[in-house]
């Protein structure tokens, strides 16, 4: 349905075949070759449903991330450094995992999901009901960045106003002293003649 709406609006529906995510979630016993076979099957199922393939693009996460590794992992690390471990653990319920039994790969999972949205330059992101916390995670990240930008601009404005007041005071002092000295100079000139 979304592919048809997206295509009729002139957009391209990107079907992100998340083979590495399945691996991280230990699907098919963690066998990447089996995961790829299942992924190919899912692609064929979607095609068989009558999707208008003209505006649909199937992209394998493993291929795209590998081919653009610097771009992807730079973005992922930027997201990771702005996110607390406690926040990531809250998102791990997506996989139905208990917080105290998470593997390192499962901790990376929500960070990579967030990265995917930026990496794919997605305008609309369709997620399953089980992934409802990822948009909240993304919203949290955007709010954090907005707050940081707001505080930075407020600080900049405060410093600008402080500097303006300080320079105004210096200018006033200079003019006052100049006026006072000119007055004394005129008085001295008048007295000496």
Structural class: mainly alpha
Distance between the termini: 100 Å
Helix and strand sequence: HEHHEHHHHH
CATH architecture title of the largest domain: 3-Layer(aba) Sandwich
Q: Given the structure, what is the number of helices?
A: 8
Would you tell me which CATH topology of the largest domain applies? Rossmann fold
**DSSP, total strands:** 2
Give the overall pLDDT as a whole number.
78
Estimate percent helicity: 55-70%
Instruction: Trace the largest sheet across and list its strands.
Output: 1-2
| Strand coverage percent | 5-15%
Q: Name the CATH superfamily classification of the largest domain.
A: HUPs
Low-confidence runs of at least 5 consecutive residues? none
Reported for the largest beta sheet, the result is: 2 strands, parallel
Tell me, what is the CATH class of the largest domain? Answer: Alpha Beta
- The gyration radius over C-alpha positions equals 30 Å
Tally the structural domains: 2
Principal-axes geometry comes out as: elongated
Features:
single chain; 193 residues; mainly alpha; Rossmann fold; 8 helices; 2 strands; 69% helix; 5% strand; elongated
Explained architecture:
It is elongated, with a radius of gyration of 30 Å. The mean pLDDT is 78. It is 69% helix and 5% strand. The chain has eight helices and two strands. Helix 4 (61-67) crosses helix 5 (69-81) and helix 5 packs across helix 7 (104-119). The chain folds into two domains: 1-67, no CATH class; 68-159, Rossmann fold (3-Layer(aba) Sandwich), CATH 3.40.50. The protein is mostly helical and 193 residues long. A two-stranded parallel sheet has the order 1-2.
């Amino acid at each position: 349905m979304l592919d048809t709406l997206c295509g009729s609006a002139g957009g391209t529906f990107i079907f992100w075949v998340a083979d590495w995510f399945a691996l991280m979630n230990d699907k098919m016993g963690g066998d990447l070759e089996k995961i790829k076979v299942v992924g190919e099957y899912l692609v064929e199922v979607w095609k068989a449903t009558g999707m208008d393939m003209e505006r649909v693009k199937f992209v394998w996460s493993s291929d795209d991330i590998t081919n653009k590794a610097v771009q992807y992992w730079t973005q992922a690390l930027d997201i990771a450094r702005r996110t607390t471990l406690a926040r990531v653990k809250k998102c791990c319920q997506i996989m139905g995992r208990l917080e105290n039994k998470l593997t390192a790969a499962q901790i990376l999972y929500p960070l990579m999901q967030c990265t995917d949205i930026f990496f794919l330059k997605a305008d609309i992101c369709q997620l399953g009901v089980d992934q409802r916390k990822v948009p909240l995670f993304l919203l949290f990240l955007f709010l954090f960045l907005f707050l940081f930008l707001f505080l930075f601009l407020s600080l900049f404005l405060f410093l600008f106003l402080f500097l303006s007041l300080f320079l105004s005071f210096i200018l006033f002092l200079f003019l006052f002293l100049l006026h006072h000295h000119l007055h004394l100079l005129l008085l001295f000139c008048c007295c000496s003649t």
